[in-house]
Amino acid sequence: MDDLTGIIQKNYAQIQSRIDAACQHSQRSPESVTLIAVTKYARMEWVAALLELGCTHLGESRTPQLEERAALLPDHIHWHFIGPLQRNKVRRTIQHTCLVHSVDSIKLLSAIDRIAAESNLQPRVLIEVNLSGEPNKKGFSREELLASWSSLCALAHVKIEGLMTMAPHTSDPELTRPVFRELSQLRDQLQSMSPAQVSLQELSMGMSGDFEIAIEEGATLVRIGSALFEGLESGN
Ligand SMILES: *Cc1c(COP(=O)(O)O)cnc(C)c1O
């Protein structure tokens, strides 16, 4: 086994066991949490090593790299789109993805819905929420989302399956807990306002520095990049 494979195997195993421990700690089943390996900065050899380990959920944040990799890698991979999505790239992006995490405006959601209708697709999406109010962060504010919820639910071709957030950068991961808790409560509130066909089962929250706390607060999808590739030299 070469160094690269060994390092990724060790990182992956450690993250898996930390996910399991966080699930146990919060009395959740480990199957209720999916690890998404964020490969936006990973070289192809690293991605190949991850696939060897059985990782099948990969996250990319740029459409060209997503397309390039989806063309090269096996069909059974579930691609998650987690970056800012330009409206002129929606068509190409939804063809490859199982879930778009980063729907940050009504305009974008409407564009996805229109293109979905034209392409006869039913893309699954999450709504990105900016709960920390940081101006450089993307996403709906809580107020904006509550006010527009019924019109978002009226779009017939997209399937809104939950919410996503990025916690503020902080040296103390405990400081992210209130943000994760608020996302979970907002999901419950929106669910109670939703028509019967809308089921908000997904909460995409938690990254390398704070995923255990996110799991304790109900995350179903954790997006982990740097912790998986720790010890390797970055490719780009
Ligand atoms: C890069 C990125 C991640 C992964 O962050 P790490 O701290 O490297 O784990 C997760 N989510 C989004 C939206 C990202 O852009």
TrEMBL record:
Taking the record's annotation, the residue ranges forming a coiled coil are: none
The N6-(pyridoxal phosphate)lysine modification is found at: K40
Cofactor(s) recorded for this entry are:
pyridoxal 5'-phosphate
- Per UniProt, residues of the Alanine racemase N-terminal domain are 13-229
Q: Which GO terms describe its molecular function?
A: pyridoxal phosphate binding
> What CDD domains does its record include?
PLPDE_III_YBL036c_like
Q: Which keywords has UniProt assigned to this entry?
A: Pyridoxal phosphate
Query: Is Transmembrane helix a UniProt keyword of this protein?
Result: no
Annotated family: Belongs to the pyridoxal phosphate-binding protein YggS/PROSC family.
Give the function comment from the record: Pyridoxal 5'-phosphate (PLP)-binding protein, which is involved in PLP homeostasis.
Q: PANTHER family attached here?
A: PROLINE SYNTHETASE CO-TRANSCRIBED BACTERIAL HOMOLOG PROTEIN (PTHR10146), PYRIDOXAL PHOSPHATE HOMEOSTASIS PROTEIN (PTHR10146:SF14)
Protein name as it appears in the record:
Pyridoxal phosphate homeostasis protein
Source organism: Gimesia alba
